[in-house]
Amino acid sequence: MIRFLITTLLLLITLSGCSQTTPVNVCFQSANVEHWSEDIDLYKINLEKYHIDLYNKISKVEFEEELQQIKSKLNKKTNIDVIIDLMRLTRKIGDGHTSFLAKGIEMHKFPIEVHYTNQHWKVIKTTLEHKNLLGTTLASIDGISINEIAEKIGEIAQYVENDQSKIHRTKQNLMNVEFLYGLQLTKQKFEAEFTFLDNNNKKTKASLKAISNKDYYENTEFQSIKTVIPGLEKPADSKHDFLWFSPIRDTKAVYIKFQSYPSFTEMESFGESILTFIKKNNIKQIVIDLRNNGGGDFFVGTFLAYYLNLSDSIDWKSGVYVLTDKVTFSAATSNASQFRQILNAKIVGEPTGSNPTGYQDMGQFVLPNSEMIVTYSKRLFRFQDQITQGVQPDVLIEYDWESFSKGIDNVMEWVINDIKEK
């Protein structure tokens, strides 16, 4: 959990056995039996050595049997086959901080992004060439139902701890070309036929070609559906995009965007600034937005709570709101649970993607031949007496497609209305 986001970002730039310096099809090449056998042995040895409780969900016998099956078929596997096998097995360990990472690999994506809402996969981002697909429902890829595909991708997605994070991690990997082809869900490596449905269930087919992750994130122009928060504007002098505060128009409330974790020093400075603002403007309500926060150092989050607690103008009985969703993970989950306790906060939104009680605090090691990164849990944290799948909100509000498609943040809309009724 601690330093989770920082570690994850570092993993994104770490080279692997299918690195960006190698040909794009290296992941589909035959596996080196000797190298992978050595890596698999070290995978087991190091997990047993470093994980706090490796066999809390999967038995040692089952774990060893599956590893032996993987090793026995290496001569028939490609590199991506082995990676998928080890991702699937790692998921069975059962905690969201133990993972087998393929994030440094030269991979490819199909140029759309989907969002799961109202039991449908909706297109929320496309290249300009395919902007007509925005808002449609993805129905199938190469004739296979998107629900079947999502289930298969969900079985290998990493950083999954409950149903909420499974949806989010599935979304992150759903357009991954190597996984789709490696799981035999597409017919060709870098091109597939997609079927979409409009609001009248009229079908549209499109043949989409893959682009590299580098081009996807650095060199491609997209059009997307974005939500805005009414009565709120990010200050021009904010140091970070992920951490800032602003008053909510026509209220005595302040909104805090807390999407990632700064350093202790930066949070101390931020805490002093918002405390000064609260006292100067006689603020009554606080909204702490932990949505889309994938984690960091939860001790940094307690700094924020410390400074907020110094203000006497806040309505400490019913004036503190914490927003969560399925992306809220690791330290952000812990802070949400803590804020409920020490700030008497009302949790609004969706259950978090990780659990407030469970195996967390991430370490890692690198396999010598493939250079794959394996992470593991080092600690057991208990931020709730009652064990739940995610921090359960006091007010459950899921993202509504009708609002989302119009750019309306229906969760914040509810909060603002509730504040104005006080």
From TrEMBL:
**Presence of keyword Signal:** yes
| Keyword vocabulary terms for this entry | Signal
Q: Could you name the domain of life of the organism this protein comes from? A: Bacteria
Give the matching Pfam families.
Peptidase_S41 (PF03572)
Q: In what residue span(s) does the Tail specific protease domain sit?
A: 237-398
Q: Where does the secretion signal sit in this chain? A: 1-21
Q: Which GO MF terms are attached to this record?
A: serine-type peptidase activity
| InterPro entries associated with the record | ClpP/crotonase-like_dom_sf (IPR029045), Tail-specific_protease (IPR005151)
Coiled-coil features, chain-numbered ranges: none
GO process annotations (BP) = proteolysis
Q: What is this protein called?
A: Tail specific protease domain-containing protein
> Whose protein is this, by species?
Aquimarina algicola
